[in-house]
Amino acid sequence: MNALFNSALRQSTSIRKDLDQFADSAAPSPHLQAQLNASLTTFARTIDDYGKLAKQEPVQTKQEKAFERLKNFRNELDEYRASFKRIKSANEDVQTIEARTELLGRRPHHAATPENPYSLPNTSAAAAHSPFAPASYDPNAPYRPNAYSAGAQQGPEYDREGHVLREHTFFKHTSDQLWTSS
């Protein structure tokens, strides 16, 4: 019975140390989680074995002492399991937040999801906050954006259907000109 008590004491100390390491690590490894799970299971089995031997103890005072130790071990096991679950959930929350931030940080329009995922971000708004943008707008400046360029912002009537219609008209006129010139 002393051997089981000493084993349970060592396991308890080891689990406490592993839980502290698990709580202190910024990104806990799956290896440490598995080790803690295995240690908690082994500790529970050792406590069960110690409880069986405590029931068989013929000396009343030793049996009472063993039951008191058993109660303490079970309380420790419950605390360790609750602590492990709490730390694991906190680490998962941190990892989820980091992954979400990293994922949304890639997109230039992370504040609101656009209807069209292939749409270009608002270049005029981005240019207004650019460190290379002029401090004041000069309408006669030679470097102002070209309103007729492909990347220029169109008016509010510029939508998908309008684009398809203009594209179709362009192809039709081009095709007609090719057929008439040949």
TrEMBL record:
<protein>
    <recommendedName>
        <fullName>Syntaxin N-terminal domain-containing protein</fullName>
    </recommendedName>
</protein>
<feature type="coiled-coil region">
    <location>
        <begin position="63"/>
        <end position="90"/>
    </location>
</feature>
<feature type="compositionally biased region" description="Low complexity">
    <location>
        <begin position="125"/>
        <end position="136"/>
    </location>
</feature>
<keyword id="KW-0175">Coiled coil</keyword>
<feature type="region of interest" description="Disordered">
    <location>
        <begin position="125"/>
        <end position="155"/>
    </location>
</feature>
